[in-house]
Amino acid sequence: MTLAEKAYNALRHDIIRGEFVQGGPLRLADLAARYGMGFSPLREALNRLQAERLVTAESLRGFRVASLSLDELHDSMSSRILIEKTALRAAIRFGDDEWAAGIVSALYALNIQAGRIGADADIWTLEARHYAFHRALLAACRSPWMLEFFERLYAATERYRIPVLLAASHPAGRDLQAEHGMLGQAVLDRDADKATALLEEHYRKTVNYLAQAMNTPDLAPNESLDADLCV
After folding, report:
1. Paired residues of 65 in beta bridges
2. How far apart are CA 18 and CA 41, in angstroms?
3. Pseudo-torsion of CA 118, 122, 123, 127, nearest 10°?
């Protein structure tokens, strides 16, 4: 892995997880001290993140973390639903036994982690397995473009979801294991209509929860959220 790739992975990881204030500056000197890297790989990483809409650039003002807004959340999630429903139908059509086994394995790993409590209830392991399950569903779609869009849109929506989850003081009132289980079973049954409907319902519930959470002070992603997020 090159230094630019390491810088990209580190910055992307921290932006998605809310380590930087949304809309805040990303000064090269500060980033160099934080990650122990030179300006060149960091600048390359920032340009790459700008293409993914996680970072913005302004003439003479440098780079900033992309701002959050409720409109952007709905737009990115609606786009994600559109892409993933199309990819899921293709995966159901083309998927083989190895693809199906990958879904079973990913769902099992997700459920095991979701059921852990105390010191074993690590949110980052849970999130890694959550990503792996949704990625496994689409793995057989035979479209590198749709999979790339999945990656970008997943990151865009996780920017909203992760900070809220970290700040949450009470459960969302959803049985996520049941939702994932029903979705996985519909896919394994090759029922494309049911699977895509469940996928959309799953994501719409997430958007509704995030909108509600952003209205609740103790669940807000961070204190600097703009007014659009607090309506």
Report:
1. 55
2. 22
3. -140
Fold of 70-230: Four Helix Bundle (Hemerythrin (Met), subunit A) (1.20.120)
Per-residue pLDDT 10s for the chain (231 aa) are 799 999 999 999 899 888 898 889 999 999 999 999 999 999 999 999 998 889 999 877 789 999 888 888 889 999 999 999 999 999 999 999 999 999 999 999 999 998 888 777 788 888 899 999 999 999 999 999 999 999 999 988 888 888 777 765 445 567 889 999 999 999 999 999 999 999 999 999 999 888 777 665 444 444 333 322 222
What predicted TM-score, i.e. pTM, was given to this entire model? 0.81
CATH number of 3-65: 1.10.10.10
Task: Parse the chain into domains and list their residue ranges.
Answer: 3-65, 70-230
Strands 55-58 and 25-26: unpaired
